[in-house]
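Folds abound. A case:
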Amino acid sequence: MSVRLDHGSDELGEVHEINVTPFIDVMLVLLIIFMIAAPLATVDISVDLPSANAERAQRPDKPLFLTLKQDLSVALDNDAISRGTLAGALDRATAGDKQQRVFVRADKTVPYGELMSLMNDLRSAGYLHVALVGLEAEKVTP
């Protein structure tokens, strides 16, 4: 509770206004605590991911498949290409349409780093619409 000093009268009256400064201070301190604590809450855990049983998406009439084989060779549709000529081969296959979706298939024995390297090559070539292709798992009904 606070009082207002008024020199006009001898009586001190109550002020019915809330002092919000302490509330703002507390909120700023909490904000800083959460900003520091949030990145620390993530934990790196090795996980065996299950196969996906998502709904089947509509397949375009002529999909463009980019395949990463077990021996780390790359094929665009059915034609073998090298990593150095990936951007040119994609431009020829899509007629320069970088908005076309590229379906990436990789052998399950391919290391994750190699798949990410291929994805980085796609990004460098300007192809950002990428779909990963996998086997459909059986749906389990509870």
Summary: The first helix runs from residue 21 to 40. The chain has three helices and seven strands. Residues 45-50 have pLDDT under 50 and may be disordered.
